[in-house]
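Hi, here's the filled form for the chain we discussed.

Project: internal
Contact: R.S.
Residues: 271
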Amino acid sequence: MDSLEVHTKEFWDERSKKWVNNFESEESRQENERRYQYVDEFLTTQGLYNRDSEILDIGCGPGMFITRFAQKAKKVTGLDISEKMLDYAKLNTEKNGLTNVGFINMPWQDIVLKDYGLEKAFDLVFASLCPGISSEDSLLKMSLASRGWCFTCSFVRKFSSLKNMVYQHILGVPFDADWGQESLGRSVNFLLKSGYYPYISYYDTSAQRAWEVNAKTAARFAGHLGSIKDEDHNIKKYSDAVLSYLQSIAVDNKITEKTEAKIAFLYWRSS
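And the returned structure, exactly as it came back:
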């Protein structure tokens, strides 16, 4: 996971419009929707929340989970570092006629639970693919805010055949598909040492997509040649070389990408 120095208010404010509106494809949008639905059903099936629950969604972004939770729970609070992300979340709740939702615009690592009356305030403390949940302190704070359950999920495998080919050609190294496994192990060990007994489950996805070879596609894959904080720099540095490579391997000016991902669900009782 990238350093928290990358994940500033300005960074996520800048990405908010792209995050919400510029889905790369209809297939991408549908896959996200399937994941949102699966996670929500998993939480209710496992008894992590019900209609009487109060929920905190850390790193809620544009509110994709909030709208689902609020339709079935007593109250939902969305927390995010980005004010613009929260603006989209508020619009989503308004469109769905939801009035049992509140918002906090603050980084999770900075919030003092006692000052906000958030100690043991929630039946479920939830975080999905959230960069703010990347340390022992952030996990412990989840437990301190919960009087019931905590849930977080993160990638432990994220592989793209095309991204791997571009990495190999441009950088001479394979794409690291298993970068999240070490982080998961650290989280589990920390929770066990802290007296919690976490459960683990997994969600698997796979997809195939044909990309048209053009400057936009080249910029997308060039931007991924390194850390997210260097995305703009990498686009400028590598786009021409990536475009040339894609053109050399394209068939009828298209190239197929096969993707696989495994997301780990980590959840535990806070007491």
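Let me know if anything looks off before we file it.
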